[in-house]
Amino acid sequence: MASTHIVRHLRQNVISGGSPRGRFFRHPEPPRERTRVWPVYISFQGCPGRCVFCAQSVQAGAPPVSLGETLAAMEGGLAQAARDGRGPYELAFYGGVFTALPEPWPRRFLEAALRFRRAGLIGRIRCSTRPDACPPGLLAELAGLGLDLVEIGAQTFDDAVLIASGRGHDAQATRRAARAVRAAGLDLGLQLLPGLPRHDPAALARDVAETCALAPSLVRIHPCLVVEGTALADLYRAGRHVPWPLEATIDALAEALVPLWRAGVAVARLGLAPQPELEAAIIAGPRHPALGDRARARALLALVREEAAALGGAPAGLFAPRRFAGQLLGHAGELAPAYAALGLPRELLRFTRDEVFFLAAKAV
């Protein structure tokens, strides 16, 4: 059985006799797919306007180009990758609103991708879109052309925050769009943007509950940053927007992770991918190179706290899967005092080959 190694270690090193007493538990995070992504940037294309936080021109790392140039670059790059024997890739359309591109561009992009898919270079295709650009008929057509997953930029389910952010749609549009994506036979992804104007951690908790109810395959959570050249930067300088502090953001992300994991939702990313151009343009907001890792470590601490509360006595040690060795105590060991306060100093932490955790109780 999976826990044999833990039980043997306990009997040899922790318990003087009898069966070990404590709690076995598993980490609830669903497996995360590790795929190579081929990004195609359609920055601003299909967008009805510009949201207060929008910094696509910086995130893409290049100025916007025409759809024809984008398609030609995509085909040329993929053809070269095929000649080089690289791949397979997940083709991802970033930026803009893929489902709001003028006809016949969504079809042209997918028909071109299909040729590479048949050759084995592309294994999966996804796109990002807005909640108010998901007509059921179009989604069904795109699914028939090979689209696999649609990520909806929900940002939040708080209507007041959506208005303050200039989104141009309400939360009900996101609910309708999510149902339409699933009805078309497509996988659903949702993107959340905590820290927008008038948004707070309590609102994020409500967003997470709504997200779980919609049962997406994956979620990305990008804490809001103030980027030069955006309307949000003007609000920040005018004192009308206060970004979330870093520590409060990490705590809020950690609290969001556990219910998402338990609902079977894969959290694909926490925070924006590091890009030199973007980093240079950020003027305020919660950013840290290990933001995601720090949040995941605090979420794991919350799970251990739950088990410790249910233990019914003082712990004798924690046995954790070896793959969590770099995460358990947090970034630079910042969570060591919290574990010590639970009665789990470093010397009572062990890592094993098992995939289960075991929180041992002291003999009474």
SSE layout:
Elements: H1 4-13, E1 22-25, E2 37-41, H2 56-60, H3 67-83, E3 89-94, H4 105-118, E4 122-129, H5 136-144, E5 149-155, H6 159-164, H7 171-183, E6 187-192, H8 201-214, E7 218-221, E8 226-227, H9 231-237, H10 246-262, E9 266-270, H11 276-281, E10 282-284, H12 291-311, E11 315-321, H13 336-341, E12 349-352, E13 357-361
Parallel strand pairs: 2-3, 3-4, 4-5, 5-6, 6-7, 7-9, 11-12
Antiparallel strand pairs: 1-13, 8-10, 11-13
Helix pairs in contact: 3-4, 8-10, 10-12
How would you explain this protein's 3D organization?
Residues 34-266 form the Radical SAM core domain. Its cofactor is [4Fe-4S] cluster. Keywords: 4Fe-4S, Iron, Iron-sulfur, Metal-binding, S-adenosyl-L-methionine. The protein is α/β, with parallel strands linked by helices and 364 residues long. The protein has 2 domains: 4-29 and 298-361, no CATH class; 37-289, TIM Barrel (Alpha-Beta Barrel), CATH 3.20.20. Helices cover 40% and strands 18% of the residues. It has 13 helices and 13 strands. Strands 2-3-4-5-6-7-9 form a 7-stranded parallel beta sheet. Helix 3 packs parallel to helix 4 and helix 8 (201-214) packs parallel to helix 10 (246-262). The longest helix is centred in the last third of the chain and has 21 residues, at 291-311. The radius of gyration is 23 Å and the shape is globular.
